[in-house]
Design goal:
This protein is α/β, with parallel strands linked by helices and 226 residues long. The protein is built from ten helices and five strands, in the order ααααβαβαβααβαβα. Helix content is 58%, strand content 10%.
Length: 226
């Protein structure tokens, strides 16, 4: 905990700054303490999320993209962010606060790798997106059902094997047959993929890592005017 720092004596803006630093350092208990202090001052949950958690994760994303932070450190930051979000999520739901958008994400059928897509999920949540993580080994039917159920704006498809990446085309073809393709942006990622493959299967974008995924998702939502 922040033993030498008295949050009570700090302004809200100072606490936001401290929260961002603690989140960057992966200090979950300190982030939760700061959220509790700001809630006690009756600040709006959306303001706490935006100025504290999302702003902090934006810096984490930039430094991850630039090679300053690495996966273990990003996972620690994301865990700290989730600690703060656990307090805010019920309050955000009650207040009807707007979210950045909704992402359905999962590893495709036949593939049981999930570290990459879990990292993307955490980073997306940190950016203010509602994330529906389907986990591993998902069929085209599972993706379509989730998109319809959650009225998703984005679909994230992950594959780590050359033998499973081709299933992404089956998912995209399934979206076309279901009349959903124009409703969602399809973002694909995974070790064996590249831009040419993404283009060939009809995806909207190839995202080489979680930071690029967040940037691409934000860009898509802005273009759609959402």
């Amino acid at each position: 905990m922040n033993d030498e720092i008295n949050l009570k004596e700090m302004s809200a803006e100072e606490i936001f700054e401290l929260m961002q630093e603690d989140l960057y350092d992966g200090l979950e208990a300190e982030v939760v303490e700061a959220v509790e202090e700001l809630l006690g001052r009756e600040l709006e949950p959306i303001e706490i999320m935006t100025k504290g958690l999302v702003a902090g994760m934006d810096v984490v994303g930039i430094d991850f993209r630039d090679g300053i932070l690495f996966v273990p450190e990003v996972l620690m930051a994301a865990k700290a962010m989730k600690g703060g979000m656990a307090l805010l999520k019920p309050l955000l739901a009650e207040s009807g606060a707007p979210k950045m958008g909704t992402l359905v994400i999962g590893t495709v059928k036949g593939d049981i790798h999930d570290i990459g897509q879990n990292l993307v999920s955490m980073m997306m949540e940190g950016a203010g997106f509602e994330v529906v993580n389907l986990g591993i080994n998902n069929s085209v039917e599972a993706f379509i059902e989730a998109i319809q159920e959650h009225n998703a704006d984005l679909l994230g498809l992950s594959a780590m094997l050359t033998t499973t990446m081709t299933y992404m085309r089956i998912v995209i073809d399934g979206l076309k047959e279901s009349g959903l393709r124009d409703d969602v942006a399809v973002l694909v990622g995974g070790a064996p993929l590249n831009h040419d493959f993404a283009e060939a299967i009809g995806a909207d974008a190839y995202c080489k890592d979680a930071a690029v995924g967040v940037e691409t998702a934000k860009k898509y939502m802005a273009e759609r005017g959402k």
